[in-house]
Amino acid sequence: MTKKVFILFLITCQFSFAQKADKVYTERQGKVTFFSYTPVENIQASTNQAQSQFSPETKEIVVQIIMKTFKFKKSLMYEHFNESYIESDLYPKAYLNAKVEGFDSSQLSQTRIIKGEFILRGISKPIEIKATITKENKKFRFEGDLEVKIDDHDIKVPGVLSANIAKKIQVSFNFQYDPDEK
Amino acid sequence: MNTKQNNNKVRIQVIVFVITAIVLSFFVYSYVNREQPNTQSFSTKAQLTPNEFISLFNNDNSNLAQQYIDEAIEIRGVLDKVTFRDNKYTLFINSDEEGRFILCEMQTDQKELIQDIQKNDVVTVKGIFKGVLLDAILLNCIIINETLWPKRYSYFFS
User: Fold this and answer.
1) Chain B residues within 8 A of A29 when measuring between CB atoms
2) Is the pTM of this model over 0.90?
3) Whole-number average pLDDT of chain A
């Protein structure tokens, strides 16, 4: 009887100390802004609907953006962006699949490199992004910026407008991750 | 006399040309610099519940869903929360799928109406549908008066 109770106890311990499921943090209103600076024209657009999930255990991060959520000052810029440059009807979303190198969930503030693949217009390119990560009230905030070359993703600019669009687009982001409530 | 008449003719033609150029320039400038129109001015493509809406984006219905992109959609559902980020209000409307919402980023002129609503209220919003990620996303949303929702134009479930 004692042996059976002991074995039952061991089995119970096994379940108790079983690895807990990864806790996932989600951002549903991530802000992403891009800037194109040229002597002829400066263009800026932003979205507050980038959605992302981050796992502190696996250090993996996934970001998705609907390109049509980028807002411009002028409707015509929105139309050109979606119809001519991004071709949003064919490639509606941009994606990032990456890992935060050396992430330490115990630190309140850290600067890390996010390394992975960035997919725009169906073309995947390796990317490294420097991000400042802060932890506050069980939430994580990621802020940083990066550069995207339009040639890397086969974004074609008509010759007439080539002076209006920069070859390298500056992108900045600000994400605040909340723990999933499940 | 002929010379004088010719000069007058030329003068009139120049004046007409200049006026035409100014008027055309005005229209071109207005077209190039136009801003996003108010959602109130868009005719509604469909009136749906959150579940009808989200079910459009199951793989079987993705073609049907595409026709709603950049169209004005009215959604009536239960409010989960209101957030205020980056100087913008966003309404989160529940669906039956756990963890999936209809996100409605509100137009700036909706601030006063937003103050009158709270969690678990039934709200009707109209916005421009952009697509679905974790949630269905609508922009430039306005709150619709409940009395203006007499019929349901549910294209999918009719």
Assistant:
1) 83, 85, 90, 103
2) no
3) 88
